[in-house]
Amino acid sequence: MQDDGLYAAMVRRGMTRRSFLRFSAAMAAALALPLTYAPRIAEAVSSARRIPVIWVRGQTCGGNTEAFLRSSDPTTAALLLDVLSVEYHESLLAVAGADADLARTNAMSLYPNGYLAVIEGAIPTGAGGAYCLVGGRPVADVAREVCDGALATIAVGSCAFDGGAPAASGNPTDAGGVHRVIGNGRLVTLPGCPLNTVNLAAVIVHYLTFNELPPVDLANRPLAAYGNLIHNQCERRPHFEFGEFALEWGDEGAQKGWCLYKLGCKGPETMANCPAARYGEKTSWNVRSGHGCIGCTTPSFWNAMGPAYKRIPGPIPFFPALSTDTAGQLMVGVVGAAAGGHALGMGLRMKRRRMITAREAKAAVASEATVAVVEAEPAAAIGPAPAQPLEAPAPPVVIPEPETGEPETAEPETGAPPEER
Ligand code: SF4
Fold first, then answer.
1. Among 30, 65, 50, which Cα is nearest to 198's?
2. pLDDT of residue 70
3. Could you give the dihedral angle defined by the CA atoms of residues 364, 365, 368 and 373, in that order, rounded to the nearest 10 degrees?
4. What pLDDT, on a 0 to 100 scale, did the predictor assign at position 414?
5. What pLDDT is stored for residue 417 in this prediction?
6. How far, in Å, are 154, 203, 278 from residue 227 at the CA level?
7. Centroid of ligand 1 to alpha carbon of 121 (angstroms)
8. Which among 273, 242, 272, 244 is positioned nearest to 260, based on CA atoms?
9. How far is the centre of ligand 1, averaged over its atoms, from the C-alpha of 287 (Å)?
10. Which of 185, 68, 165, 91 is nearest to 122 (CA)?
11. Residue 62 C-alpha to ligand 1 middle, in angstroms?
12. Which of 132, 186, 265, 359 is 20 to 30 A off residue 179, Cα-Cα?
């Protein structure tokens, strides 16, 4: 390509100004920017110069290279294939062996801190890195060298993101993501199996427009592309809400385009923009074409998101056999029981309250009646009590007569001294 910017390259490809502006608007949408940014993006991208790229491959099937080379959207392809100047890519080089190594080191010295490092595939460190060698050296060493001298590193695909399939349970090669070899922190990850090239184009456009990498989450994924659940953007979501599910592949629900949740779709657990960005010139994506999401942009997705056609088992520690559905039903049961208990408690409290109120009302009525009766009585009725008749004096005590036979009458006890008597 002549180094006269993307717009000139697109014109040579037969593109029109209108489609270029459409592309700028699409990039603004992919970056979650208002459409008002489209002219600024158009200006930045149309005058952009080529960015050198050094593309290193670790443990990979090559799916991301395929996605990159077969970008079918014409403007995305123009951006990726014309603005990016791929200086080193093992699958695309015309040379091999020592000459290939020389091509890489030449590119690094030609553009010090001025090229993009793109890493595809997992980085194994088991057996001293012997499971994946580039020119006889562990790919971890080569990737570290390339990333250290780069403007920024973009990890493309799920294997470069965190090890992907090579790092699945067992992980005999001790495979991991690119973060293992990044020391400078200028890393953007684009997980997906494979990556969506719209997101790669959006990262580059953001860099060209704002001279910095886009905002990312804790796993270095651009928030614009990985900040929302697939489930929230899915065109089958209304069927989920109405309880309309495909229960078997090819059944009536599947034919009607109903929700694939019960066939294992991981859209409710997966953060990505697949429904909006789509694939194949934005024609479709996996759920639209009838297959559930497999959660490939999620960390450790081979372990965490399997099996592909069942709901995720074991979300609760210590209860590995508990599926998400069962856990949901359990939660509904617990919440229902709690609501029932609360209603019962409230009923009892209200009943007690009613009893207390009734008792208080009864007491108040009784009290009012008493007051009424008292008020109705004449004042005399409540005057001093009538005098009570005095008790008759006690009869004298007869003391038996002494020996002399003279009867003697004893005075009643007065308590006075004998001489006063
Ligand atoms: Fe969610 Fe998947 Fe159903 Fe779409 S098909 S609504 S992503 S569960």
1. 30
2. 80
3. -140
4. 47
5. 47
6. 18, 14, 16
7. 28
8. 244
9. 7
10. 165
11. 28
12. 265
Nearest atom within ligand 1 for CA of residue 237: 6
Looking at the DSSP bridge assignments, the partners of residue 155 are 119, 189
The first and second tokens of residue 405, run together, are 């036979």
Domains of the chain listed by start with CATH number: 6-224 (3.40.50.700), 228-337 (4.10.480.10)
Give the closest residue (by CA) to ligand 1 atom 6.
Answer: 237
- Ramachandran assignment for 53, one of left (phi > 0), alpha (psi -120 to 50 degrees), beta (any other): beta
Average the pLDDT over 321-325 and give the result.
57
What is the distance, to the nearest Å, from the Cα of residue 266 to the centroid of all Cα atoms in its chain?
Answer: 13
Q: How far apart are CA 363 and CA 376, in angstroms?
A: 20
DSSP per-residue letters across 330-374: HHHHHHHHHHHHHHHHHHHHHHHHHHHHHHHHHHHHHHHHHHHHH
b/e sequence 191-229, b meaning 16+ C-beta within 10 Å = bbbbbbbbbbbbbbbbbbbeeebbebeebbbbebbbebe
- pTM, two decimals, is 0.74
In one letter, which amino acid is 319?
A: F
In whole numbers, what is the pLDDT of the chain averaged over residues?
83
Q: What is the pLDDT of residue 80?
A: 74
d(CA 263, CA 326): 15
Backbone phi, psi, residue 265, to 5°: -60, 130
Which residues contact ligand 1 via a Cβ below 6 A? 230-231, 234, 236-237, 240, 259-261, 265, 267-268, 287, 292-293
Cα 240 to averaged position of ligand 1 atoms, centre (Å):
7
User: Cα dist. 51→84, 96, 148 in Å?
Assistant: 5, 23, 17
